[in-house]
Amino acid sequence: MQRAERVVVLALDGVHPFELGIPSRIFGAADDRYEVLTCSVDGRPVRTNADFTIAVEHGPEVLATADTVVVAAIAPPHITAELPAEVLAALAHIRPETRVVSVCTGAFVLAAAGFLDGRKATTHWQLAEDFRRMFPHIALDPDVLFVDDGRVLSSAGAASGVDVCLHVVRKDHGSELANKVARRCVVPPWRDGGQAQYIERPVPQSSAAGTAATREWALERLGEPLALADLAGHAGMSRRTFARRFGEEVGMSPGRWLIQQRVTRARHLLESTDLPVDQIAGEVGFATGASLRQHLHAAIGVSPQAYRRTFQAAR
């Protein structure tokens, strides 16, 4: 039985309770693969941005024992370009090899502490201009749900903390466990990090036809050639109307969504089977193994063989 990886969540004054609880909820549902601890800069209770205070069990010294540190979101009035001395002292406990994740405005804390120097990052889209003004040397992308820049990851507002934590589980232990965690927490198992933060109409009006049923239909037929006309025809819409409504509901084009779903299915097959790459390509709807290699490399930066070796070794 492998050692549980330790995740330490840092709660700062003004913390959002919802975002603070995300790591414990997601990593805690991962079949004992993670141990989640919560700390403050001094081990004392932390005032939230709600009408209550949270008592924590640990002080900053526990950060030195973490495999992953998560900095939870804080309310905007608590954001500063220069961190208080006690926050800097707490963050100094983090070892150089530790993975660091921010949720929402936690990116401001990482930026002020130097963790984001020379890296890409994201934060809540409403605070993008504040971030750029305070940290002009950091490459900010406010249009995505999360950014994975190797050892340091950052996510956008609120629920995107769920996405980045599931992404970490997927990176560490594969899509089968990540999907199981998502089912247990009743959340979508996969939202692409590059998906738009702000979707024009995430919940369609009840009187309007949506694309959800067609997406489910397409997921059952990923191995078949699916054109925009096929999707629109199933939804009973013109291609133009379907593409517009799809973008409003999902935040990306139907073509990009299909590629994302095919890559996700291919990753699961690479992890869980010994099928040849060309056969997997056919199973998920890519014309050739070369096409699968191209799209997988674009999505996660590795070849199918390298990806499979990683998870075979983990098993």
From TrEMBL:
Sorted alphabetically, which keywords does the UniProt record give? Transcription, Transcription regulation
What superkingdom heads the lineage? Answer: Bacteria
Residue ranges of every copy of the HTH araC/xylS-type domain listed in the record: 212-310
SUPFAM superfamilies registered for this protein in UniProt: Class I glutamine amidotransferase-like, Homeodomain-like
- Give the range the annotation lists for the signal sequence: none
Q: Which CDD domains match?
A: GATase1_AraC_1 (cd03137)
Entry-linked InterPro entries: Class_I_gatase-like, DJ-1/PfpI, Homeodomain-like_sf, HTH_AraC, INH-QAR
**SMART domains from the entry?**
HTH_ARAC
Q: What is this protein called?
A: Helix-turn-helix domain-containing protein
Q: Which organism is it from?
A: Streptomyces lannensis
